[in-house]
Amino acid sequence: MIKRIVHFFGDSEKSRLRWRLFILSLAAIVIADFLVNRDHGEFFWDSLPGWSAGFGFVSCVAIIFVSKFFGHQGRIMRDEDYYD
User: Fold this and answer.
1) Which of 59, 24, 25, 52 lies closest to 36 in space, CA to CA?
2) At residue 61, does pLDDT exceed 90?
3) By CB atoms within 10 Å of each CB, which of 2, 26, 36, 55 scores lowest?
């Protein structure tokens, strides 16, 4: 079972299928967000459908770019042969 999963994610021939499954799962999350009861939101953006999915995606992308910036521009990241 695990062998099939590893081959599915490691095989370059299945990249198109993986991409389609990824897009389908993202669409399912946004569609499911439209079905949630929004009466309990404290702020106005809590009542917007798709807000949590969009905010989560933008936050993850921001974390990646900020960490890359600190790693490269902030001189935190070192060369591979730094200790040699």
Assistant:
1) 52
2) yes
3) 2
- Tokens encoding 75: 């001189």
Rounded alpha-carbon distances, angstroms, from residue 60 to 4, 54, 57, 72: 29, 10, 5, 18
For 2-43, write each residue's pLDDT tens digit.
887 777 777 788 788 888 998 999 888 888 888 888 788 788
pLDDT for the residue numbered 50: 79
